[in-house]
Amino acid sequence: MFEKDLDTQFQEAVGIASNMTQASLPQDVQLRLYALYKQATYGSLNYNHSESFDLRNAFKTNAWIQISHLTIDESKQQYIDIINSILNIKNDNEKT
């Protein structure tokens, strides 16, 4: 059986996530997905301390900084794992 490569799996997970509503995900999960997406697509954050302060962006930046030690591939895999976990929980809830 042909296994999809990491980039394909990641793009599919991003597509699934983009169809989820913010209300359906806890904020900590949203931040984690945001940070993993940024790390997976841009690599480590180059933080500019002179940027203006915005609380929402501060939380997003902090989330990204916390996972900046991950490689791009590790970030993609964790993103995929979270989306798959959410889908499995949703499917389990629909069965009951």
Walk me through the structure:
With 96 residues, the protein is mainly alpha-helical. The chain has one domain: Acyl-CoA Binding Protein (Up-down Bundle). The chain contains four helices and no strands. The N and C termini lie far apart (31 Å). The relative contact order is 0.17. The model has no long low-confidence stretch (mean pLDDT 88).
> How would the global form be characterised?
globular
Number of strands: 0
Number of domains as seen in the coordinates:
1
- List unreliable stretches of 5+ residues: none
Tell me the helix content. Answer: 55-70%
The CATH class is Mainly Alpha
Mean pLDDT: 88
The CATH architecture designation is Up-down Bundle
Under CATH, the topology can be stated as Acyl-CoA Binding Protein
Proportion of strand residues: under 5%
Spatial separation of the terminal alpha carbons: 31 Å
Q: Supply the helix-strand structural class.
A: mainly alpha
Secondary structure tally, helices: 4
Radius of gyration (Å): 15 Å
How many strands, which pairing sense, and closed or not: the largest β-sheet? none
Spell the H/E element sequence: HHHH
Topology:
Blueprint (H helix, E strand, L loop, with lengths): L5 H13 L8 H16 L12 H12 L5 H24 L1
Characteristics:
Acyl-CoA Binding Protein; 4 helices; globular; mainly alpha; 96 residues
